[in-house]
Amino acid sequence: MTTMNIRQRITTGLVSAAFLGGTLVAVAPAASAAPATAPAASSAGVSAARSCLMTPGIGYYCRYYKGTAYTDFGDRGNKVKEIQALIKASHYSGRLAIDGVFGNDTLKAVKWYQKRWMGDRTPDGIVGPKTWKSLRWDCAC
Asked: Residues of the signal sequence (predicted)?
């Protein structure tokens, strides 16, 4: 199954849930929707994906940070936790703790995200307006 098919299935499920009037508390991709080459998600990754939800006016929000402030290597705090959770929810299979520290693992994950989901040929690892927008609206949560 291709990534586009997975995203379409998730989006269809979200739209269906919204139209049926159900309360959507959290969304996580089905285990069968994960790429065949991805290792099993850790419990931290699963809880990160489950805590992200679509929020009007924000996009996907993982309950750490609602803003879009410039963020890069060396930063700390809730905005970094938000980035880490959104990337984990985007099927990142590498090592990435949701610890609020923008260190080497987070830099590697941001570059992966920029290359994989944004099509950047030379990802810079900086979470500026374009990367925030993509994380908020393209998350495969």
From this structure: 1-33
The pTM assigned to this predicted structure is 0.65
Cα–Cα separations (whole angstroms), residue 135 to 34, 60, 67, 71, 84: 18, 7, 12, 13, 10
For the segment 56-78, the average pLDDT, to the nearest whole number, is: 95
Residues facing 59 on adjacent strands: 55
Q: Could you report the per-residue pLDDT of 61-70, keeping only the tens digit for each?
A: 999 999 999 9
Select the more confidently predicted residue: 38 or 124.
Answer: 124
Residue 35: C-alpha distances to residues 56, 93, 130 (Å): 29, 10, 26
Rg from Cα positions in the chain? 14
Name the residue with tokens 């090592």.
95
Give the C-alpha distances (Å, rounded to integers) separating 18 from 13, 37, 60. Answer: 9, 31, 15
